[in-house]
TrEMBL record:
Keyword terms: Coiled coil, Nucleus
UniProt GO cellular component terms: cytoplasm; nucleus
Comp. bias (Low complexity): 48-64, 320-349
Annotated region described as Disordered, given as residue ranges: 43-83, 315-349
UniProt superkingdom: Eukaryota
Name this polypeptide is given: Microtubule associated tumor suppressor 1b
Coiled-coil segments on the chain, per record: 112-307
A single MF term (Gene Ontology): microtubule binding
């Protein structure tokens, strides 16, 4: 049987039931024909024996030359033969009915087992499909989490690399400025030392006072230079912090946008999960409906078989005394019974 997605389970069940009934009816009709031929061979024996008895009676009776022929014994023998043939036909009918009833019970059991098996296979396939969908959903979620972690790690590495590059640039710039300041400081120091040595040569009281003032000014200048360096460092640190804050704000906005996208995707996944659960409930309900439909069809089959059985028992059969042997009459009867059996296979829908 070729599977088609347009066929429902009820149509499949009806076709399987009709096909099984036709096959069983063909087998049953073949068995009936064989049994009828066997019984017809057996039924010829009593006829031959009755004919021999009649010939023996005619031979044993004395021949009457002058009297009329005896008609009553011949009619009695014919009546007995008819009764015997009727009894034999009744026995054959009862045995065939018993066989048909047994076959109907076996057929019903086979169809019930087949329906149960199909229902179990359908349930197993639905459970497998649901399990596969759940596993695929779990895999997708795990893959999504892994991708998010990789993405966040890559972004963090990029931001860290940019911060490191900026720090290296600032460090090199500070080293360059410090080198320039050291060079100027050394030059100024050398000049001061030279001038100091020159002034020491022409020393007087006023120059001593000036030297002291110069030393104090040098100390103040060093203090101011240190304060200036500290202010410059603070300003550079503030600029760096501002740049970092701007970059962090940008990265925060990106991360928030990505979180919103991820929330939307999670909502879509949740909606898909709810849709799958509703589809599972609908499939379960359809499975229950199909099982109810199968039960109803099995009950209809039982009712049709019961009607067919009662129809075979109650149907009148006329046997003419001048007809052929009972085997021929019974063989003519079998196609009508097969037609009666094939009629319930048509679906009421």
């Amino acid at each position: 049987m070729i599977w088609s997605p347009k066929l429902s389970l009820s149509n499949i069940h009806v076709r399987l039931t009709a096909k099984g009934l036709l096959r069983s009816i063909q087998l049953l009709s073949g068995c009936r024909k064989n049994t009828v031929v066997f019984q017809s061979v057996d039924k010829n024996k009593p006829k031959a024996s009755s004919g021999q008895q009649a010939s023996q009676q005619q031979a044993s009776q004395p021949s009457q030359v002058n009297g009329p022929p005896d008609v009553v014994p011949a009619s009695a023998s014919k009546g007995r033969r008819k009764d015997q043939s009727i009894q034999q036909l009744k026995g054959l009918l009862a045995s065939s009915n018993c066989r048909f009833e047994a076959f109907a019970i076996v057929l019903q059991q086979i169809l019930t087992e087949r329906l149960e098996k199909e229902k179990e296979e359908l349930r197993v396939s639905l459970e497998d499909a649901l399990q596969e969908l759940q596993e695929q959903h779990q895999k997708d979620m795990a893959e999504l989490e892994r991708r998010l972690q990789d993405f966040y790690q890559a972004e963090w590495d990029k931001v860290h690399l940019t911060y490191q590059e900026e720090a290296d640039k600032c460090k090199s710039l500070m080293q360059q400025q410090m080198g320039e300041l050291k060079a100027t400081h050394e030059a100024m120091k050398q000049e001061l030392q030279n001038s100091h040595t020159e002034q020491l040569q022409s020393k007087d009281s006023h120059t001593l006072y000036l030297e002291q003032e110069l030393d104090s000014l040098k100390v103040v200048l060093d203090i101011k230079n240190k304060q200036l360096h500290q202010h410059e460092k603070k300003l550079m640190e503030l600029d760096k912090l501002k740049d970092k804050n701007v970059k962090l704000d940008e990265s925060l906005k990106k991360v928030q946008q990505e979180n919103e996208d991820l929330k939307a995707r999670m909502d879509r996944h949740a909606a898909l999960s709810r849709q799958l659960s509703t589809e599972q409930a609908v499939l379960q309900e359809s499975l229950q409906k199909e099982s109810k439909e199968n039960k109803r069809l099995s009950m209809e089959n039982e009712e049709l078989l019961w009607k067919l059985y009662n129809g075979d028992l109650n149907s009148p059969r006329r046997i003419s005394p001048t007809s052929a042997s009972p085997s021929h009459s019974f063989s003519f009867q079998s196609p009508s019974s097969s037609n009666l059996l094939s009629s319930p296979s048509v679906s009421p829908r």
